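Table S2 (text version). Query chain:
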Amino acid sequence: MNLHSNGSASFTTTLKKAVPVPLKHGIKRLIGIQPDPPEKKAKPVEYWIDVVSGCNLRCTACPVGMPEFTNSIGQRLREMDLELFEQICIKAKNDTGGNLRIGLYNWTEPTLHSRLDEIIAISVKHGIPCGISSNLNHNYDWTKLKPFPLWNFTITVSGFTQKVYAINHRGGRIEPVLANLIRISETLSDWPSYKDIDVRYLVHRDNKHEVHLFKHFCDKLGLKFTPYHAYYMPIERMFEGLEGVPDGFDYIEYSPQMVSKAIGDHRSQRCFMRDSQVTLDMDGNYSVCCVESPSSPRLGNYLEDSYTTMQKRRVSSELCAKCTAKGVNIFATYGYEEPQEIQDAIRASLPFDLTALTAPPQAEAPETKQENNSPPSL
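Corresponding structure-token output:
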């Protein structure tokens, strides 16, 4: 046994542990050795899964409220079986190497599922981050969420008063929304995932004046508040919007036609809705992307097809080809993945700035009427 060698190794190991990492990197830079850059982790694949077959609202710009695109008008509400959901979780984890997260919504309201907490528990059991979205028009028992961490909890709103809220959230009532927000703050304020609740205000022409009111309300409850541009749904309406304004959509200012003019001939194959998202209906069937209407033909079943087969079918679909050819993918993703000059062009074309809407309105100084050239009174 070489005692000298072992002693040196032991001393080196001890020295490595004793010297702080930032100091090590500083010494390396000083002598011209650049530390290895941190390994960049791949973005997780997001699974948007409808765990029920319909929604309790008929929003104006949502296909669930459109007879030609709906999956739930006049239909009995069905719930995803827990065993089916677990099979999807197991396969999804294998397909992605565990680098995924699940949102229990796309076109539907997950709180309508009678065993939503058990659905979330299955995802947590398999180590998969899970999130939900809600319109808060259903009186759910929010204490059921408390045992589980959520990676997101999105709440969609579009007005602070009933008259304004109902323009977009057709069939909904603002009173239970506000009451549920208060109840959530009372029930879940000490919940670790409370900070991940995001109240998303869908801004359009006729509700801008109430943005600051809702933000003030959320600030009082300690809830995150984010304004977003309301836009056309489903993708069939986006295509129509390239030529003109579909009936009933005139209140939405962020339009496909506006974005099309802003980007000109620029086209892109980038689309995170296709490349890093998977959309499944209540039966585990997959579609091209999350903005395709719920009544459109499915491409296949997630449990029956390999991940590679699914992605090939999505990428090679006629819908995907039409979407990218017309630049609708850029509109649908707000141009987030496009070069900076394209993002700037879209931003410059917008009729209003979202960030400016969250500030309280400034009171205008009253005009002083001057007569006979007399100075204004002080």
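Notes on Table S2: Strands lie at 45-49, 100-103, 130-134, 152-157, 197-203, 224-229, 277-280, 285-286, 300-301. Residues 3-18 form the longest helix (16 residues).
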